[in-house]
Amino acid sequence: MIVGHTPGGFTDNMARAVGEPMSRAPGQPVVFDCKPGADSMIGTEMLVKSAPDGYALTTVIAAHSANPSLYPKMAFDAQADIVPVALTGIVPGTGSAEDAAAFLAREVERNARVVKAARIKLEG
After folding, report:
1. With 65 labelled, which of 58, 84, 86, 117 sits at a CA distance of 20 to 30 A?
2. Average pLDDT for 3-25
3. What pLDDT, on the 0 to 100 scale, is given for residue 76?
């Protein structure tokens, strides 16, 4: 999982909270590769250039939707080149801790099913 932000930050911690349970479904570990910089575009570009085999994932935050307006010469198309899989987190302070925990638990479970189904489809 490519994390376009610094190790130990909110986005990295959220990716790890989701990635660990995801590794149980396909039975393969999720490896985290932090590639911070350029409003997460370095990590996102790394994903876009990776093999389309279903094994590479990335995390994006709100900056992903703003980047095309701020950087007209991006190396990828933020809408066409990235396929959203799941919402994995919410901004702190927008709901109760119980709501966030329940939401995250549901999304982690759903993500594991999506990864497993994608892997089955790829392996035919």
Report:
1. 117
2. 87
3. 93
